[in-house]
Design a protein that fits this description.
By secondary structure, the chain is an alpha/beta fold. Helices cover about 55% and strands about 10% of the residues. It contains 27 helices and 14 strands. The chain starts with a strand and ends with a helix.
């Protein structure tokens, strides 16, 4: 519990301190302060101490000042001593986590969104708040474990991602296999041994491949078909030659002319009324018909097939290609350490004859084709292919062996890197993985403990929240309340007339925003706060800044009763601040005689704001506001609390004095400040009270007869009136005031 506070250069508090018993904080500390006098600043100081956030203070530096300082001294000496903040240190000397603060900041930022809804983030904030320091302890521990798990996970992810990028350079093994490798002694020797073996296998594969290339080349000649090129086309083409010599420009070559005729023959559409494919005129003369028939005979499908066969033969039997290709492959074989002892000159010697036969056929399609050389080549090729097949047997299945050796070599290379350049990274990965297994187990255990603690509070919180809502005559209640933890669910569900109210949603839905008034929303937030105050045993100081500013007089009285009820059975200190004089009067009426209560106000003068003792029944600032007294008197007529009724009864005199001063401002000067002196003055100046019975009525209501306290001379001792007697005086005073 706090006893003293000193504030330097924070907001309007330039040099403020509580001094003396009348100003020291007590179990119940009630502070009145006008808006802008420093009430919110004082609340921010307590919030800053709770969270150890100097920003709440730094942002309220007194204009023109350089350094700030705040000192809060507990009632009982503790090892911590005083709580101190200075600009130079820029932090509190110690935290005070046992403070809880209710103000507009709490309602608008911790409970509702700007759109007056309670979304998932707000529910998390409310849950953290209601679970208190113990819940916060769990959350801090869980968050710490989560961060450590995250760091370890990032280490693992970073390592595995880096491995994936370099996998092709590290043997291509899956990362878990790479990680589980066992270190091999003398791995470099094993690598060298397998590399030599692999080189041999690789050469065998190259040799086999090259031999197969020669075989494929030879098979082209072995399978050469001379039947197509041996076809003969016997057609009298003199007509075409004659036509060329007679009608065609001699600058035109016969070859291009022949191509022209060949194209035309393809476009020809024979028929009774056939048109010329060259000029589109109808063919009528016999000579023209004979000419086209001759062209068609020459450039028909057989002609094209024969030309194709000739072209294929020309490509297969060039002058130098065969020899060059064979020599190139032989050279490659020699570079691989293999010498091919085969002489292909006998085949090469037959190529000129083949070339001439092809040329002769091309010149005269009707001539006989000489295929003897081709048949000879085919025979010789078969012999060479048989020899190559015999050689290939020696190099069978090199791929299987190569795959086997490459796999072994990759594993050896991976092993070398695993315990060389990747050793440290793998050890970090394995440590992070092992640590996470333990951390995850710890986190799971903490979650279980956290949920057990939270679930234990849920039912009592639900009861307390609904008790407060019921006392305030709210037409809604909390149907269910369950702390979320890491679950996806609502913290609570409201109900109105049996219908659920959503915490957030659209304008056309039953939501807190749409169904609750501003006053109801404030009460809901206040019910969360007060339920937390009641159930959190770690809270020692409760700070409430204007908790009832949006309520009507009935709800203000109810909330004050609920605050007193909840705090009555605890040792928690209440520091309640308000800017409403009526509410301050009400608090004083109910707690004025409480020795554990102190009433202060924030006074402002040229030196800034300061905390001073305050009695609202005597303070001139409150005396001017007689509406508060009238309200107290009205409320007292229906109250069964003797303290409240007696306090209201004491307001009768002040109200009458106020009415008389307002009615006779000229006659009643400032020095005339009691009812008796006022009536005397009015009688002196010839007022209506010299013969009017109202003076008697005033004296009666003010108890100036049998129960007037005249302790100075012992006359008229005070009589103990009953509560109904006080109420009667109050009701009579209303009639008197009306007549005045």
């Amino acid at each position: 519990m706090f006893k003293k506070i000193e504030i330097n250069n924070v907001g309007r508090f330039k040099n403020a301190k509580t001094e003396g018993d009348e100003q020291f904080f007590k179990k119940n500390t009630f502070i009145y302060g006008k808006n802008t006098f420093g009430k919110s600043t004082l609340t921010s100081i307590f919030r800053s101490l709770k969270d150890n956030k100097p920003d709440y203070i730094v942002g309220r530096k007194t204009i023109g000042s350089q350094k700030q300082a705040v000192k809060i001294i507990p009632e009982v000496t503790t090892p911590i001593g005083e709580y101190r903040y200075t600009t130079d240190e820029n932090k509190w000397s110690a935290e005070s986590k046992d403070i809880i603060v209710f103000d507009n900041h709490f309602v608008r930022e911790s409970v509702y969104t700007q759109n007056q809804q309670i979304g998932p983030d707000q529910q998390k904030t409310i849950e953290a708040f209601m679970l208190g320091s113990k819940g916060s302890e769990y959350n801090i521990k869980i968050a710490g474990l989560t961060e450590l798990i995250g760091e370890n996970t990032r280490t693992q992810t970073s390592t595995s991602n880096e491995y994936s990028r370099n996998k092709h350079l590290l043997g291509g093994l899956a990362f878990d296999i790479f990680l589980a490798l066992v270190e091999i002694p003398d791995v470099d020797k094993e690598i060298e041994k397998n590399q030599k073996e692999l080189d041999k296998v690789k050469n065998s594969e190259i040799i086999s491949s090259k031999l197969k290339s020669i075989k494929v080349l030879l098979e082209n000649y072995q399978d050469f078909d001379t039947s197509k090129i041996s076809e003969k086309l016997s057609v009298n083409s003199d007509l075409i030659a004659s036509h060329f010599d007679t009608h065609i420009n001699q600058e035109e070559s016969k070859q291009s002319y022949s191509s022209f005729l060949q194209t035309g023959s393809k476009m020809r559409i024979p028929g009774e009324n056939e048109s010329c494919p060259f000029c589109t005129q109808q063919i009528t003369t016999e000579s023209a018909k004979e000419f086209l028939k001759t062209i068609d005979l020459i450039y028909n499908e057989n002609y094209r097939n024969l030309q194709k066969a000739i072209k294929g033969a020309e490509e297969l039997f060039p002058k130098d290609t065969f020899s060059a290709e064979i020599e190139k492959i032989k050279t490659d074989l020699e570079q691989s350490g293999y010498t091919l002892d085969l002489d292909f000159s006998d085949i090469d010697a037959l190529f000129p004859t083949c070339k001439k036969s092809i040329s002769d056929k091309k010149d005269d399609l009707a001539s006989d084709f000489n295929g003897a050389s081709f048949l000879e080549i085919s025979k010789k090729v078969k012999v060479h292919i048989a020899t190559i097949d015999a050689e290939l047997v020696k190099f069978q299945n090199p791929a299987d062996r190569k795959t086997e050796i490459e796999k072994t070599l990759n594993e050896l290379l991976a092993n070398k890197e695993r315990f060389n350049s990747w050793k440290e990274r793998c050890e970090k990965y394995q440590k992070a993985k092992k640590d996470n297994e333990g951390l995850s187990s710890q986190k799971s255990t903490l979650w279980d403990e956290y949920l057990a603690y939270a679930n234990g509070l849920s039912s009592s919180m639900l009861t307390d929240i609904n008790t407060i809502l019921g006392a305030c005559n709210c037409d809604f209640e909390v149907q269910s309340f369950s702390f979320k933890g890491n679950q996806r669910q609502d913290l609570f569900v409201l109900g109105m007339s049996g219908n659920p109210i959503s915490n957030d949603g659209g304008d056309n839905e039953m939501t807190i925003k749409n169904c609750l008034s501003d006053s109801d929303k404030w009460i809901l937030a206040l019910s969360f706060f007060l339920a937390t105050v009641k159930n959190d045993t770690t809270i020692n100081v409760v700070v409430m800044d204007d908790p009832v500013s949006s309520f009507d007089s009935d709800r203000k009285r109810i909330i004050l009763t609920e605050i007193k009820r909840i705090l009555a059975s605890t040792n928690k200190q209440l520091i309640l601040l308000t800017h409403e004089k009526g509410f301050y009067h009400l608090i004083h009426a109910e707690n004025g005689s409480d020795t554990s209560a102190v009433f202060l106000k924030i006074a402002l003068d040229a030196q800034g704001s300061d905390l001073v003792a305050c009695n609202p029944n005597e303070d001139p600032e409150f005396m001017s506001d007689y509406n508060c007294w009238i309200a107290d008197m009205k409320n007292a007529t229906s109250s069964q609390d003797l303290a409240i009724v007696k306090n209201a009864h004491s307001c009768i005199r002040k109200v009458i004095e106020h009415v008389l001063k307002i009615k006779y401002p000229i006659e009643l000067t400032k020095e005339i400040n009691t009812v008796g002196s006022m009536l005397d003055k009015l009688e002196e100046v010839g007022g209506p009270y010299s013969t009017n019975s109202k003076r008697t009525a005033i004296d009666t209501v003010l108890a100036n007869l049998t129960h007037h306290d005249n302790s100075a001379n012992g006359q008229y001792p005070v009589s103990q009136l009953g509560i109904e007697d006080y109420k009667k005086d109050i009701r009579d005073s209303f009639q008197l005031i009306k007549s005045l």
